[in-house]
Amino acid sequence: MLDFLPRPLITSTTGSLHSKPLLPWLIRRVECIRGSLSINVECAPAFNYARNPHVTTIVDDDTVLLSKHKKGLFESADLTLDLRYIAETTTEDVDVPVVHLTTLDLSAKGHKGLAIQAFIHLIEGQAVTFILRNPPVSADANSVSALANKAQQSLSPEILQAVDGAIATADPDRAIVSRRLLDDPMLTKVCTI
């Protein structure tokens, strides 16, 4: 297992800013290198140092391309967190692992809301990356457009060209607005590395 928290946006040794946004996500990656393993992954946030209750739901995740799966949502009075994942293979001859999120009651241990768990069986060449983050607040069309314009100014032309090439429309205004907010990108293997 590997845990990491991406570092904040900094200047590289060459003096230029990194072109890939560095996101404040807590990331845990589970990968089977050899043989097989079964693991139960649990996520049980405790809001305000375990003083505030929260509501846990499992909802559809629209941040993963070409896949219909769920994400966990933890909502307290002051903070919302979501738990997303990307399942993948590191070799071509292996199927993508199945991840099924369920709720877990840990109130007997003092938790003030449900946790989320996923029991996963991995074989060699399979991996799952979990992302716990504070999701961005929904934005209206004007602020989305403003953020898209800011993104266009701050990202390299090569990245913008790649994003625009992936959008199947010739309308440049729609292409800019179609880019997801920088802090809420579509979740892909490349995004989590």
Describe this structure in words.
With 193 residues, the protein is of the alpha+beta class. It is 18% helix and 32% strand. The strands form two sheets. A six-stranded antiparallel β-sheet has the order 1-2-9-6-5-4, with no helix packed on it. The protein has a three-stranded antiparallel β-sheet with strand order 3-8-7, with no helix packed on it. Strand 4 (55-61) and strand 5 form a beta hairpin. 16% of the residues are buried. Mean pLDDT is 76; it is low at 139-145 and 167-179.
Q: Which helices and strands appear, and what pairs or packs with what?
A:
Layout: E1 2-4, E2 26-31, E3 36-43, E4 55-61, E5 69-75, E6 80-89, E7 101-104, E8 115-123, E9 126-133, H1 141-154, H2 157-166, H3 172-178, H4 189-192
Antiparallel strand pairs: 1-2, 2-9, 3-8, 4-5, 5-6, 6-9, 7-8
Summary of the model, kept short:
The protein is an alpha+beta fold. Helices cover 18% and strands 32% of the residues.
Globular, elongated, flat, extended or rod-shaped: what is the shape?
A: globular
Instruction: List low-confidence stretches.
Output: 139-145, 167-179
Give helix % range: 10-25%
Following the backbone from N to C, one meets helices and strands in this order, namely EEEEEEEEEHHHH
When the domains are counted, the total is 2
Across the major sheet, the strand order is 1-2-9-6-5-4
Largest sheet: 6 strands, antiparallel
Alpha plus pi helix count:
4
What kind of assembly state do the chains in view correspond to? Answer: single chain
Q: Which radius of gyration do the C-alpha atoms yield?
A: 19 Å
